[in-house]
Amino acid sequence: MLERAKKENRRRLPKKTVLVLCLLTLSGVIRLTPPLAHASASGNIITNPSFEQGLDPQGIPVGWDLTGCEGVANANVTLDQTHWVDGIQSAKIITGPVTPTYCLPDSGPRSVGFVQFRQFLTPNYPNLRFSNLTDSPSGFSFWFNLQPYGAGIGGFEVRIFGTESTDELDYVFDPDPSLGTYTNYTDPSPGVRALIFQGYQPGQWYHFSRNLLADWTTLNLNTNNNFTILQFQGFASQIGTQLKSTVFWLDDVRVYAGSQPPPTGTHWTIFNFTDTKGNIVDSKVRWKILDSTGQTVTYIQGQNSLSTAPYWVQVYYQDYSATTLITSEQIHLDTRVTIPLTMIPNNSVIGNYVVLNNPVANLTVYHPNSSAPQFIVRGTIGTEYAMILGVATQPALIQGNGIDLRSGIDWTYDPTVSFTRIQFSTLSETENVTLFFNVPQRQPLITFNDITGTALKSQITFQILDSRGGIVPYSPGRSLL
Predict the structure, then answer these.
(1) What's the structural domain count of the chain?
(2) pLDDT tens string 153-195
(3) Shared-domain flag, residues 293 and 365
């Protein structure tokens, strides 16, 4: 159980209990959907479980409530269409830095705070008891994704309330030591129970599923008490100058009630691919579907066989190879999707396409001679690019803006598919990528001496001219086209 973070709150228990009851009444009027007359608990009892119903007038997802009064006054929630599992978006909660604020009248510094993102169940289900919950391993479940804010993740917790601190079950995920000491807490006397779960990595979606009724019963909590609040918490700690805080995404939150087992929903997806001109290029690419753990999922487009989960499509140019990987992006379910690729038509290259992993403003191909094509890329400064080209043979050398790129590191060649992959970062707006299929001649280091052997420096100026009389910028070691 968390000792340091909860110590302050427990000594104010009578006052805090009154405050929670006031918030229940207020939230039932302002935040939540109108109470259901004679509502019976059956199926998923969570309002707006996948956050697809937009925001209420206070800017909070409909049916939910958020407060950062316990030491994180800058906490906020948004709907994020770049992260999702079910539908088109998820809820993103930023805990933020620790602030000297309290839910009850108080003042002074504090080292730990936590955001409370919650749903009050009583307004819609005033008679919902824990005994009404579905007895199933998937009776309570949700998807979540954690990211650090500051020097690391503070911690993440789910609190199941009958009555706070006297009838409560906490599921705790990877708490940072700066919060205090967490242990599995299963004391038989009435109070808080805590179960600790470890090993969750930042930036990955995880599905958490428990038999909440069984946990509540096994831990000797009273199943005849009402289930009042489901609350998700992100923690923040400030030890000296080091801040550790939590950003978390939630989606597809489910709590089932009733005797029927939770449904096992399935989904489908259909997608195609276009080049930069809008032409369908499905015949020129290959693809794989991956789940949240990076494992390949066998799937036929349009087949209603995908469980509720996040999925990514990996797209390859012509063949499956690390060299030909174009992109990997998350896909929406139960919809048809067109995925634009940075495949630039160009008839002067093998395969008639120059392929990149990120969009560019413009690409021009020059052929100064037959053995050294140049690709002038105008992209976004600071962007990491990978260019995929079909080639007849392995290049002898590849340069970016006149600098040798390292074979096996900056560029690779796969003879089984006859493609080369060139990686570069645009330090300026334009990148000049040159492929040499013959070992190039390089400009020599030119020095001048007088008849005594003394070096002549500023006294001598010179120019290098090409066969047409054009001036070639002098740079010792630079390749000559």
Answers:
(1) 4
(2) 999 999 999 987 778 999 999 999 999 887 787 776 667 899 9
(3) no
